[in-house]
Amino acid sequence: MENSAKSVLRFCPSLCVTHACNLSCVYCYQKHSAGEHMSLEVARQSIDWIFSHVPDYADGVEIDFIGGEPLLEFPLIKEIVNYVCGKQPDIPFIFFATTNGTLLDDEMKAWFSDHHSCFCLGLSLDGTRATHNHNRCNSFDAIDIDFFLRNWPEEGVKMTLSEYSLGHLAKDVKYLHSLGFKDVGGVNLYEGTFDWDKDEYLTILIPQLAMLADYYAEHDTLHPCQLFDKDLSVCESQTKDRKKWCGIGTGTPFFDVDGRRYPCSFVTPMTFTQDELERILATDFSNDENFIDEECLNDCYIYPICPQCSGANYMINKTFKKRNRSKCRIQKLVVLFIADMEARRIAKNPKRYDEIKLYHTIEAIKKIREAYLGMFEAFMVNAN
Ligand code: SF4
Ligand code: SF4
C-alpha cells in the first residue's frame, strides 16, 4: 500500500465499503456475498470516529477504501470524500483504494482524474497478460493501465503471487517495470498457501531470485520490488528496536461494512472466530512489548528486516509475542539474494551510500553470506 502522497507518520484507518467483488481470483480467500455493503450513515459515523481519534504522533490521515472490489461502491466513495472534505479537518488527509481496475468507466475516470491529488487509486496487476489472466479471471484487457500511469506516475502496482506465477516471478516483475511502474509492491512470499518447508518451492524460487538480483544490479537506479526492498545496514544497528512491526490496534483501525471496528483489515471475523477476536481485542496494542519475540530479537541477525504480520503470527501461535517461524528459511534465502544485489550495486557505484551506511551494508553482506549461504548451497547447485 505504498503511496507517494502519503505522509510519513500517518494514521491509516480503512473502511470496508463492500464484501462483494466482480472477480474471483485464484488466491482470494474472501467469501463474496453481494448484499453486504456499507451504508452512508455507517460510513459517516466511522469518519467521525476517525477524525476524533487521530493519534498525537500522526501528521496526516490516510483513509483506505477496501473491498471486495471497492469501486463497486463508487457512489458511496464519492459521498464519503465529500463528507470528509466538508468537515474541513485540521490535519492533512488523503484517500486510497486498491482496485482490480476492471470497472472504471468514463464517469469514474473523469472523477478520479479530477481528484487525483487527494485520491490515490492503486492497481492490482500480477504481471504479464498470461500471468494476470491466469490469476485474475482473464481481466488483463479490461484494464486501462495507462490511466493509472498518467494519473499516479509515482504510484506502484500491487502484485499478488499464486502457485502458477511463482515460476514466472522475475519475468512478471520486469514486465511491470517495463510498463513504467516505478514500484512493484505486494510481492509477498509470506502470505498464501506456499508450504516453504517443501524443497520443490525453493527449486522454483531460486532461479527467479537470481534473475531479479541480476536485473536490479544492472538497473541500479530502479527501486527494487517489495521483496528486495530491504535496508541491510539496519542489521548492523547497535541497539535493536523494541517496536511493533506494524500499526495493528493503534494505527490501522478497520471498519467493517456494519461499522464494527477491528485492529486492522486482517484481524476481523473473516479470519478469526468470535472467541479468538474477543481474546485479541483484550490486548494492549499500545504496549509494543506485547509484540516482541525475545528469541528472534536476541538471536537472529536479520530481525530488523524480517517482514512480519502480527495477525498471521497470532493465527499460528495464538500469541502476538511469537513470530511465525515457518517462514524463516525462505526469509534467509531472500536476504541472501538481496545481499548479492547490494554487493553488485555497490561495486558498480561505491558512492551510492554515505560512509557509515556503506560500511554497515558491507558488514551485513559478509555476515549474511557467512551465516546463510551454506543452508542453500545444494539448491543453488541444482538450480544452475
Ligand atoms: S527469520 Fe525467523 S528467527 Fe529470524 S527474525 Fe524472522 S522469524 Fe525470527
Ligand atoms: S497484523 Fe498484518 S495485516 Fe494487520 S496491520 Fe499488521 S501486518 Fe498488516
Q: Any idea what the shape is?
A: globular
Q: First CA to last CA: what distance? A: 35 Å
Q: What radius of gyration results from the CA coordinates?
A: 21 Å
Domain count: the total is 2
Q: Which CATH class of the largest domain applies here?
A: Alpha Beta
Helix proportion of residues, in percent? 40-55%
Q: Averaged pLDDT, please?
A: 92
CATH architecture of the largest domain: Alpha-Beta Barrel
CATH superfamily of the largest domain: Aldolase class I
Sheet with the most strands, sense and barrel status: 9 strands, mixed
CATH topology of the largest domain: TIM Barrel
Total E-strand runs:
9
Structural class: alpha/beta
Helices and strands, in order, run as: EEHEHEHEHHEHHEHEEHHHHH
How would you describe the overall organization of this protein?
The chain is an alpha/beta fold and 384 residues long. The protein has two domains: 1-169 and 246-288, TIM Barrel (Alpha-Beta Barrel); 195-242 and 292-384, no CATH class. Helix content is 41%, strand content 9%. The protein has helices at 40-52, 74-87, 106-114, 129-135, 145-151, 163-166, 169-179, 199-218, 274-281, 294-299, 310-317, 328-348, 355-383, and strands at 10-11, 14-16, 60-66, 93-99, 119-124, 157-158, 184-185, 254-255, 261-262. Strands 1, 2, 3, 4, 5, 6, 7, 8 and 9 form a nine-stranded mixed sheet that branches. Helix 3 (106-114) links the parallel strand 4 and strand 5. The chain binds iron/sulfur cluster (2 copies). Residues 296, 300, 302-303, 306, 323, 325, 328, 331 line the site of one iron/sulfur cluster.
